[in-house]
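task queued by scheduler; priority normal; single chain, no ligands, no partner chains; default sampling; output format set to structure tokens
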Amino acid sequence: MYQGFLCRWAIAFLIFLYTPLISQLTGDLKIAFIRVSFSPGEFPGFTGNGKFLYDDNSICGSYTIDAPPHDANYFQSHIYAVDNYFRTVSYGKFGLDIDESKIFPRENRSSYEISQSMNYYHELGYESDHEKRTTELLKDALMIAHATDSINFSAFDIVAVIHAGVGQDFNLPFLDPTPEDIPSTFVDKDMINKYLGGPIQIGNNFVYSGIILPESQNYPLMDININEALSDPCDVQYSITGTWALMIGFAAGLPPLWHVESGKSGVGVFSLMDLGANNGRGIVPAPPDAWTRIYAGWESPVEIQLFNEVNLESNKSHQIGKININENEYFLIEYRNNWFRENVSIDSSRYSVWEETNDYPTYVKILIDSADISFNEFGVITEVENYNLGLPASGLLIWHIDENKINAGIDSYSVNANQNHRGVDLEEADGAQDIGYISNLLTDPSSGYWGDMWFPENKEYYRANSNGSMTFSSFTFPNTKSNKNANSGILINDISRSSKSMSFKIASHYDISIINDKNKSILFQWDVDNDGDLDFVGEDDSLWWSDNLEDFIFIENIDGKLLEVIVAQNSDTTSLAVLNKKNNKHIFKWIVFDTFTGNFSPKWKNEITNASQVKFLKADGDNESIWIIKDGKHLIIDSFGITETEIRESGYPYRSSKDISIVLWSDRIETKEDFTYYGDFKSLSLIDLENDGSSEIIALDNRGDIYAFDNNLLLKNGFPIHSNANGPILAMDLLGDNSPELIYQDKLGIIQILDHEGKKLDQISTTSKVKALGVYQGRHAIITSNALILYKDDLNGFENEWNYKYSTPDNSRFLSNYKSQGKPGFIFDLSQTYAYPNPSFNENIIFRINVGLAESLNINIFDIAGFLVENFSIDISSSQNSIKEVHWDISSINPGIYLARIVGTDGLRKEQKIIKVGIVK
């Protein structure tokens, strides 16, 4: 940790339209390092005198960091240090080209002197010009270098200016006495275009970007006044290795993970591309986080399925676990160990020495003496075996990755600009999620600290969670929910102690069964072999069926792209109608199950060419024919050929809406057209919401809103629901409350579960598509493409359920085995009977009555003096167990207060309700 320091990388100078050079950061970078000094002078706001430090000044003896002379050998040593860092953390895939990277001028103790004074480029009082002057520094340095030595900058991948003095990159533990120091900065092409009018032309070559680097970050070494002001200057020494690694990584294409405009941290000390650049006093910069290493092409994550135990090692490749939340979000889990020997870290060693001697040694002293780190011949530490040494603890780091957020912000440096929704977000084990937030705590956690890492001894975790053991789930702080607050069900527990490796188990707090073969996908359930138990039909590169999701039996190769599979209606044995598309052909197959062999065999095949849209209506098992809609026309396809038809059967009652024939029964929907053609609705379902013996029509419109209508097409109370639904609305009693829940997948892929009144009960984040509702292992289940989420026991079989888009896999459009629950006990529902609008501002008043067993229904309306104004005798011959609306034309009625008396009778029984209504004109 920083022991009182706060890193404030001054990248607020950047313009935010830079596209990274590459997302696969491999190979060797060639860098031209240009040393520049300034005209001599005394500037109290600047560290040093504008010249490089060559005189010996080992203020801390053998523990001095980046001791002078700061000559070419010194900077060459740091090139080695940065190269060793990148080669270690990239597992040899990326580094600097040591031979082709050059330091200019070539003389050991030399620099190009810029005519401007050193404080010009970050002058107090000219804050609005700082960005412009930083850009000018890059140009001034390159121009004088080329004029002196004719450098061919086109031979290098990156140009870097090393200026005399230190970087304005830290907050010291007192008022900064040198605010005019130059910040370390990546000057991108948009800064150059904005302030210089285009790329920097040098001879026949152009320079489009560059980085500004300091001579040193060791304030006590570089400024005697700072040295004398500190009680222990040797404990606040920093190396430039971390600064250089950060800036070179940034210029090469590693995205910044802090908020570049405000400077607020995004992932703290746990990544190079944030505050981790200064871990281990800048000598031991943190490795990039797991996502950045994958983005750079240095690592590949291992996808983890549920119900597995995972073991991860530190400092080894291919040790990043990936757990999917949904299509765009996932967790990355890595193990970081900061020991330099078994169970001993730098901080624990310092504390141990203090306990024994009452003397608290400096961080650098323990690092050099104990961690097998040594100086090279030029006084620079160039090699570190474990770049996790600078972390505050050993444990798991759990990263919540949101690819949508990353993709939206990658080009503008805003991956983590939104503190409430970061693209790369550390799930802090202490539950506070306070990285980047201002803190008044004595130990500032805003830069990340040991309590953010996952290990069983982490007491900070138990401050936020009362669990008996460390777990990470939808119910902990932090939790495994998606960024849309949907439950992922992911449960991580049994986290082991830190050692050479760490292990954990992954499960789900839902009762869930999965297909272990991730290439296989479920299509639907059907009793294929007619044994009374539901089987599964699914696909991979072929069609298959299975009765247990472990043994898969081949059905048929998929010829081209599979579009649809349905079961034939009225077939003695299971027959499948299959639609594939290959090139410009739609291929229809009729496949029949043989109960003796237990296998399917093809019976006939037919094709249609040049069709833009083909959709199944049903498969007729009696005639072995497939009824389809092709480009708006109705066709019947069988083994003999293709017939165009009206597909209209006599005797069917129907309700016509916009010339689309749609039949609305209490237990089924029959339609002349595919549902997608029905008005503004893209799907229709049936369900008895109240279990009152009368089914409702559940309609999903093109905006994703859900409507519920009774059989008179009157809207039910509480609907529509603004749901953002994407798929059909399915229904089943999942929770055992004797009422059906509404289940659908929204446009974000989240499974939504509502009660029968439309109130949200749960939302489940998933990577797979909801296929159906069904039964598995004797329990009601949501069936997705590769998993089943299990709920209540199935006691009565399919009853009052809408399990597929068209109810069943044979597109029956029937309410599954629907059984009336008996007649309601009320004549009309007083609580669900009302008038609207009330009061009315010159609009007709509508009396909405929830009719039950009423045989007669009357409305008498009286004025405030008791005189009868209007009388309605309502025809309810077809309105029992439904909603009835009666319109009162008030165009000739005077404004005032009126009393409406609604009377319903059922034989000798009578019920009434008085409603006060107001009319304003």
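post-processing summary
- The chain has five domains: 9-17+32-253, 262-334+391-509, 515-520+547-647, 648-822, 828-920.
- Residues 1-22, 648-660, 672-678 have pLDDT under 50 and may be disordered.
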